[in-house]
Task: structure prediction
Amino acid sequence: MALPRITQPAQGATHNHTIAAQKVFKWDPGTVTPGYWRVKVGATPGSWNYYTGPAIAEPNHQDSGVMLNPKPLNGKTCYTFVEWGQDGINFPNQGDITSFICKP
Result:
């Protein structure tokens, strides 16, 4: 099974979060077909201390309102992933982790 992966921001990219267009996170669903998705962003791989997004119904593959809070330090590596589930409440599955450089 090919796991979902965040594609925007791209792996290793510098992400300037003050630009409106860069508050949109997109993902490749891989071979997964859930009912709902949710984006998370954190300071370490698998964490979500900067952002936990709302439930986003399939077939949408983007979160247009990513707001990092608290704001990470400039130049810090941040980590993001998309998780999925069937009911929009429970998200038991996690996709591959993408790292990027934060410019909040």
Remarks:
- Residues 8 and 26 are 5 Å apart (CA to CA).
- Residues 5-103 form a domain with the Immunoglobulin-like fold (CATH 2.60.40.10).
- The two ends are 34 Å apart (CA to CA).
